[in-house]
Amino acid sequence: MSKRKISISIRDPVVYEFLREKAQRDNISAYVCGLIRDDMMKNHEDLDERIESVVRRLLKNTDGITLQSRDHPKKDSLSDEDRELLKSLF
Fold first, then answer.
1. Per the domain annotation, does 33 fall within a domain?
2. What pTM did the predictor assign?
């Protein structure tokens, strides 16, 4: 069990009562940690969505963007096969 502890004050009586009842049945620390983790993941997903949105917007405006895959040769470059063929011709 961890020695890390945080104390919080709950001013909303309805929330306080809910947590008090929940603590009688369940591990309240695990419950709160789960809520925080869910919130952390949601924020992470929001960041991913924003990044995807920016990339989509940039890709729509391809006038100033040149994308080139390293897997495909450039238009002006020759393959090894083409080079060998040229060497054999001359």
1. yes
2. 0.44
